[in-house]
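Subject: CPNE7 protein structure
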Amino acid sequence: RATATMGEAPEPSPQAPLAVLSKVELRVSCKHLLDRDTLNKSDPCVLLLMQSQGQWTEVDRSEVIKSNLNPVFAKIFTVDYYFEEVQKLRFEVYDSHGHAGVGTHDDDFLGGMECTVGQIVAQKRVTKPLFLKYGKFAGKSTITVISEEISGNNGYVELAFRAKKLDDKDLFSKSDPFLEIYRIDDDRSEQLVYRTEVSPRAGSGPRPPRRLPGPTEPLAPQVVKNNLSPIWEPFKVSLNSLCSCEEKRKLRCVVWDYDSRGKHDFIGEFFTTFEEMQKAMGENKVQWDCMNPKYKIKKRNYKNSGVVVLLDLKIHRVYSFLDYIMGGCQIHFTVAIDFTASNGDPRNSCSLHYINPYQPNEYLKALVAVGEICQDYDSDKKFSALGFGARIPPKYEVSHDFAINFNPDNDECEGIQGVVESYQSCLPKIQLYGPTNVAPIISKVARVAANEERTKEASQYFILLILTDGVVTDMADTREAIVRASYLPMSIIIVGVGNADFTDMQILDGDDGVLRSPKGEPVLRDIVQFVPFREFKNASPTALAKCVLAEVPKQVVEYYSYKAFPPRCPQPETPDSNLSSPQ
């Protein structure tokens, strides 16, 4: 799918890949739904559809809630949010019919609502009327969608609950208990975080294998049947959903006796916080009295309506790009410049390497645009600058990985300006030649990245910017080198300079399919981004940088997540010696 660029570019290229800003969680509830059933109330389910190229496609659906005209759905819909893209959503509510599933007949349709992701994100809570076909109101029916951004430093928690000696609410059998957890927000409203949906399991006995629902099946609520001491299946929720990443935020937990007609009987409740829950980590357990306030008032010797125990709690941290950067991970930037003869004689004004004192050439424009972004993430501001495809002094033999400062022991330049100066000074000293081989330079940077990988720390990530005026000659070797590099902490950006036909270069960019080595081995990660510079000729210089660097944060996180390397702990800052001591 097309995605939106991060930030605003004055004149972005229409073909520029756009970057995901974040993921958004959507929670849905309805009120005053139409009653389609004769004997019972409707059993509503919500379908989420997204528009792509004018067509509506179902992307997800909620569970079915039995006999309820004011449902609060436990299902959380997760969608990607793109700042500069109009993402149209449609929510359709249907009356489900048990095993027949959710129908699409007019008689089953309880109403629909259209909006955009941007509207929901901007307003955080959107309540709109539901409409039947032909724009007719579905009575007084409304649907409310609440959005929450999944923050970059978010993680998730896995919880395992059980209960003991719950009150029996059934006359001829034992209760069928399920648990709901609500987060209490700053405005004192309650937001459903999770409703237990597990396969039936009595006590601690064996559990039948769980069959996951298909993509078009509703998630039907299931409870522990006929058991006053249930063990609920462990479940995962994001910390953002559970407590808005605030450990002291109050949570309300409610235990119900399930009723197939939707008239669930209240067993009891208790209040807690995520801070208190964390006492259950390791071998410890935490328990709460499950209280029924009415019984507490009416019954003199009332103690509780059972006990709820948190058996286990596991925190899974999800690290963001900024977590790694703020933890001290450095971005090492290397530029590789094409010095093949197809660029034209640098002394000729038609050459792609021509140095115009009043206007930088395309090589310099691309180098500066990308390099100026990367330099903020490299503390020593020293960048490796390499060349390929030229005959170099003193013997004027063809080289495909030479330092443009002609120092074989240290190919680094001081800052972006140092790279520019080395580039300009090397042009008169070399002979443009060929062929366009880039595999040697990819392999050279990969060797350095491999040494870094052995530290088993998230300390350095490598970005290789290759500037070339044509399709690479050593395509097979290049594909092999990229597959090897995909296992290392590095990303590759290729910018096509000039007006050549770069069609064959698109194969290196995995956007149209998985790049494979000549032997058929796929890349571990998509690490290559290719763009022709001509698409950005009339755009702001920042548009190119935003386009080619948009995928880098995701690639960094993917690599360190795959290797299970956490961010390093930031080093404590030393006091500034220039600060005067307090008087």
